[in-house]
Design a protein that fits this description.
Length: about 290
């Protein structure tokens, strides 16, 4: 028993010391020693994201794709997704997206139906069909023109942002670093978009806010690393066998704690945004999904 205790304490001591070193930025991890491993992992994830986007695309909400949405507050037995789909399809709604969600504050189930725009007569028939499942809490209509306008403006704003950032970083550091920074941001955004493509989660305005949050923190973290590398360039050769790669690795260790803090703040912001940043007309963003979109 004594031997086991003695063996455990040094392990705990080393772990505690490692945490202290990370906090005080005294680590010496060899981040760049096995670059091919990180490249293989990143490339694999990017390939999965691209394949998912090409195969299934994104599940755009009506705010971007246009269409109609019904929110039904269920009374009594909650119908299945298949039952609701069959009912609204028979009423004239083609290729509907059905989800059953639960209001966390009340525990009540809601049926949310989305589909392409239809004539007024068919809208009334679909509303009548859905009313048998409970109270119609609300309906939303977004024109396809409005949805495409929002999407185009978002893409234009993103393009302008990248152009401005590229110019700034070219002057602040050098053109090669600007290309690397933009590539890193695109890498992070593509991976996030890939998650939505793989899982089929619906893209809503709050999702765009989350993407912008990721973009901002990713760019901030990249600039912090580049600034530290620029600061350490004059130290190259101060030690025997020192190289640019070793200096860059040293710089990464020196900003490791800040990078971890940035990642944690990014995750906290996205979690907060997913529950609190949605438009007031879409309170269903606070509901827990019980079934996948059809």
């Amino acid at each position: 028993m004594t031997d086991v205790g003695v063996g455990v304490r040094p392990e705990r001591g080393r772990f505690r010391q490692a945490l202290v070193d990370i906090y005080h930025e005294h680590t010496n991890f060899n981040f760049l020693g096995r670059v091919w491993r990180w490249a293989l992992l990143s490339g694999s994830l990017l390939l999965i994201s691209v394949i998912a986007l090409a195969a299934s695309g994104l599940n755009l909400g009506i705010d971007f794709d246009g269409g109609l949405s019904w929110d039904v507050r269920v009374t009594g037995h909650t119908p299945s997704v298949g039952t609701v789909r069959d009912a609204v399809t028979a009423a004239g709604l083609k290729d509907p997206k059905i989800s059953i969600r639960q209001d966390r504050s009340t525990g009540q189930n809601h049926v949310v139906v989305q589909g392409k725009d239809v004539a007024k007569a068919k809208q009334a028939q679909i509303t009548k069909t859905l009313s048998k499942y409970g109270e119609i809490a609300g309906t939303t209509s977004v024109s396809a023109t409005f949805g495409s306008t929002v999407t185009n403006k978002a893409l234009i704003a993103l393009g302008v942002f990248f152009a401005v950032i590229a110019v700034y970083l070219s002057f602040r550091f050098e053109p090669k670093m600007a290309v690397a920074a933009i590539s890193a941001v695109l890498h992070d955004i593509l991976l996030t978009v890939g998650v939505y493509a793989v899982t089929g989660f619906e893209v809503v305005p709050a999702t765009v806010v989350a993407f912008l949050t990721i973009l901002g923190f990713s760019l901030y973290d990249t600039v912090v690393v580049f600034d530290k590398i620029k600061e350490n360039v004059p130290t190259i050769g101060s030690e025997r066998g020192d190289t640019y790669t070793k200096m860059a690795n040293r710089s990464l260790n020196q900003v490791l704690m800040r990078s971890l803090n940035t990642s944690l703040r990014s995750r906290t912001s996205r979690s907060h945004c997913s529950s609190d940043c949605s438009p007031a007309r879409t309170p269903r963003s606070s509901w827990r999904r019980r079934s996948s979109l059809g």
